[in-house]
C-alpha cells in the first residue's frame, strides 16, 4: 500500500512510499482510510519546526483521520467491522491520575497518532479500539474529516462562557480552527471579528465573509471581551493582548512554529488570562458530530479534496495558505485488498 511519510526533521523530507499493509495487534482494528484532514501540526512536522523534536521519523502522517473498519484482532469482543470511525489521535496512558480524572489530553505520557507513531495518511492503518469513536456512515467524506478540528475548537472554547450573547470576540488566524471558532462563538451569540493578513490570508478572509463573519484586514483592531488566538504567531497573540479588555480571557488553541515575544506588561496590567488548550476528550467528538450536522453547508466551503498521490501538494498548499482545509481521500487499492486477505488469513485476523 502507499503511505505519506516524514523521513527526517531536515525540512520537507517527505515522500509517498510503498509499505506493507499493517496487521492489527491485540486490541487493534484494521481500518480502510477514507478521509484525512491536514493541519498546521502536519506542516510543522514536515518543516521540522521548533517544538517537534520529539518526533522519531520515519513516520506516516495523518491524525485527523476517518475510515471504515475492515478487520480486527480476534481478542476484541465488540464487532467493529463495517463501522465508520474517527481516530482519537491524542490520548494519554489511561493509567495515571490525570487520565483517571478524564484529562487524557494532558497526560505526561500522551501520544498523537500520525506524529508519535504511524497515522492514517495511507490506504490502510491500524489503531487501538479504545482510540476510535463511531461516526455517521452516510456523512460526506469531506465533512467527516472535520471531526477532529471541530473537537479541538469545542475543547478550546470551554475557556469562554457558554453564552456569549452581546459579547465581542476577536479571532486571529482565519484557518480551519479560527473559522470554526468564529462560527461557534457567533452561534453562541457573540459579535465576532476574525483577523488575518491581507497579503497572505485573502482566500481565507473571503471565505470568512461568505460565512457571514466580520473581517478585519487592516492593522486596526476592535476592542474585545474575549479572544481566540488561532494563528500561532506572535503578531496574532499580541494583537489579542492589545485589543482585549481588562481581565479578558484569551483561548489559545494555535501551536507556534517558534517561540513568540509576548507583550507581557500589557497582559499583566490588564489582568488578562491566557488559556492554552491542547487536544480534546472523547465527548468532544460527539458534540462535534452535532456541530457538523448543523453547519454542513458552511463547513463545505472550507474543504479542498485531494487524492493520496497529491498529498504532498496538499500539504504545501496548506503551508502557503492557498487553501483553507485540505482533505486527502486515500480511497481503496485493489492490490491492497488482496494483500489484506492474504496477510490476515495468516495472522488469524477477523
UniProtKB/TrEMBL annotation:
It comes from the Bacteria. Residues 26-135 form the Alcohol dehydrogenase-like N-terminal domain. Keywords: Oxidoreductase. Pfam families: ADH_N. The keyword Oxidoreductase applies. Its cofactor is Zn(2+). This is Alcohol dehydrogenase catalytic domain-containing protein. It comes from Citricoccus muralis.
Amino acid at each position: 500500500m502507499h503511505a505519506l511519510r516524514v523521513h527526517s526533521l531536515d525540512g520537507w523530507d517527505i515522500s509517498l512510499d510503498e509499505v506493507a499493509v499493517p496487521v492489527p495487534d491485540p486490541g487493534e482494528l484494521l481500518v480502510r482510510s477514507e478521509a484525512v484532514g491536514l493541519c498546521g501540526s502536519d506542516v510543522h512536522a514536515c518543516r521540522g519546526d521548533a517544538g517537534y523534536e520529539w518526533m522519531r521519523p520515519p513516520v506516516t502522517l495523518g491524525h485527523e483521520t476517518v475510515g471504515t473498519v475492515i478487520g480486527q484482532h480476534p481478542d476484541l469482543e465488540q464487532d467493529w467491522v463495517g463501522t465508520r470511525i474517527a481516530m482519537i489521535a491524542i490520548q494519554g496512558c489511561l493509567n495515571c491520575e490525570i487520565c483517571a480524572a478524564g484529562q487524557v489530553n494532558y497526560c505526561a505520557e500522551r501520544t498523537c497518532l500520525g506524529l508519535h507513531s504511524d497515522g492514517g495518511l495511507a490506504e490502510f492503518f491500524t489503531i487501538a479500539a479504545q482510540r476510535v469513536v463511531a461516526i455517521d456512515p452516510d456523512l460526506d467524506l469531506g465533512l467527516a474529516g472535520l471531526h477532529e478540528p471541530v473537537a479541538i475548537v469545542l475543547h478550546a472554547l470551554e475557556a469562554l462562557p457558554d453564552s456569549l450573547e452581546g459579547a465581542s470576540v476577536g479571532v486571529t488566524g482565519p484557518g480551519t480552527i479560527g473559522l470554526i471558532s468564529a462560527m461557534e462563538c457567533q452561534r453562541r451569540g457573540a459579535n465576532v471579528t476574525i483577523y488575518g493578513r491581507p497579503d497572505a490570508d485573502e482566500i481565507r478572509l473571503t471565505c470568512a465573509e461568505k460565512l457571514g463573519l466580520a473581517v478585519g484586514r487592516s492593522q486596526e483592531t476592535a476592542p474585545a471581551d474575549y479572544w481566540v488566538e488561532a494563528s500561532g504567531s506572535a503578531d496574532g497573540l499580541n494583537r489579542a493582548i492589545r485589543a482585549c479588555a481588562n481581565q479578558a480571557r484569551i483561548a489559545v488553541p494555535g501551536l507556534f512554529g517558534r517561540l513568540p515575544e509576548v507583550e507581557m506588561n500589557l497582559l499583566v496590567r490588564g489582568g488578562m488570562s491566557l488559556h492554552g488548550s491542547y487536544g480534546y476528550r472523547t465527548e468532544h467528538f460527539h458534540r462535534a458530530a452535532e456541530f457538523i450536522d448543523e453547519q454542513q453547508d458552511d463547513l463545505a466551503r472550507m474543504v479542498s479534496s485531494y487524492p493520496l498521490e497529491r498529498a504532498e501538494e496538499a500539504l504545501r498548499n496548506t503551508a502557503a495558505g492557498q487553501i483553507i482545509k485540505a482533505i486527502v481521500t486515500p480511497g481503496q487499492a485493489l492490490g491492497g485488498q488482496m494483500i489484506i486477505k492474504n496477510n490476515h488469513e495468516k495472522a488469524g485476523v477477523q
